[in-house]
Amino acid sequence: MAGLTLERIAVGALKDIHLDVAPGEIVCLSGPSGSGKSRLLRAVSDLEPHGGTARLGGVEQGAVAGHRWRRSVMMVPAESAWWFDSVGEHLHKPMPEALEALGFSDETASWSVSRLSSGEKQRLALVRTLSREPRALLLDEPTANLDETTTRRLEDWLLPLIRKRRLPVLWVAHGGEQIRRLAGRHFRIEGARLVEEPVRT
């Protein structure tokens, strides 16, 4: 698998962002509300105009059509969109093991999206994304609506998958404990730049 490289990314207040994320590495991002965490992920996924570029292995973001780039470098926003009536219609392929690991039943694929809670949508948005076999993940506070037990359950499912598929991951997180559990490296947004913080103290 390929690593993810950010080269001179500029979006909003952020300027000249350089970052290399190795295959299978989780890099956590944190910072105050409004500092640009989500906008940075949107720039990397080519969902927002920006300066600079991103690379996945030897492929440059601007060298392929946006929809093709986003199939490889997939972003899971904090509030996911749903466009079909049922959960199963959103899955690229059946994901029974993932559903079970996250506490869902076999019938979940037939559930109406309208019955889902915010926490269920967050978990199922991750299942939906992984069903499409991306080559890199951009996660915007994917456990924000989950309690501690459910958060740990999601991490226990997702981290081995990241390692197995060797996915480079940018993960926006606020909680210090979660960052210590997940991150290979941690960067905090301060003004226009990323400042590396110690992961474990």
Automatic annotation (TrEMBL):
GO terms for molecular function: ATP binding. Residues 4-201 form the ABC transporter domain. InterPro entries: AAA+_ATPase, ABC_transporter-like_ATP-bd, ABC_transporter-like_CS, P-loop_NTPase. It holds the Pfam family ABC_tran. PROSITE patterns: ABC_TRANSPORTER_1, ABC_TRANSPORTER_2. Keywords: ATP-binding, Nucleotide-binding. This is ATP-binding cassette domain-containing protein. It comes from Microbulbifer halophilus.
